[in-house]
Design a protein that fits this description.
The chain has four helices and ten strands; from the N terminus they run βββααββββαββαβ. By secondary structure, the protein is an alpha+beta fold. The strands form two sheets. Strands 1-10-9-6-7 form a five-stranded antiparallel beta sheet, covered by helices on one side. The protein has a five-stranded antiparallel beta sheet with strand order 2-3-4-5-8, covered by helices on one side. The chain is globular and about 50 Å long.
Length: about 230
Amino acid sequence: MKFKERCYSTKVIRPRPLVHLEPDGSLLVVANSWGQPEQAQIAMNEVVKYINSAKSDVEVTSPFEFLTCLSDEVNYARTGVLVANEILYRGSNRNQYLAGVEILALFRRGNQVAWAQVGCPSLYLQRNQQRLQPLSVCQDLSSELQEIGGSLSPLPGHLMGLEMSCNVQCGSTVIGNEDQLILLSSSFISPALWANNSGKLDLVEVTKLMIQESPDSPFWLGIIEL
């Protein structure tokens, strides 16, 4: 996997995420902390450590059950997120909320990409010469509160580390060598993502269109070339 990103900032604050990409391209983790910034790094480190151990057939212990309805790859990503959630809760947020973290883990093995997600960024698939397909979308809660024509600061819909349990969205898809994965943290879904007719998205062009559409709305956009 090859990864490119753009972060657009305005007077409205949206934290910039941390990104970890394994040298062989098999694992990408995006973590975004609302509160103490170091919590994103803690969560990311735990997810990376668990998935790398699991995929290397190293015996790892986990208090979380593997779900038989999911592939091994999805279970690895999901369990890594759950382990990180428990560590954040017990270590930082048990008595007082210090930070909540949004996270997305993408694990590629062969022609399958598995994901586990709490909060943004949302995940889309751009297949070669096809229209964009949503895979896992997280809604920003500010979109439920703002009035027509108004603008509110981003408000995360789901965070890990605040409770002993968390809502992990997970799944997998088959990908081809010319496909793209699109990652987006934003208060709205831009029409620019669907305006492309060539079958591939260009990061610079999409960023430019999104800024033109809503110059006061901050966002973070990443594109993975597979």
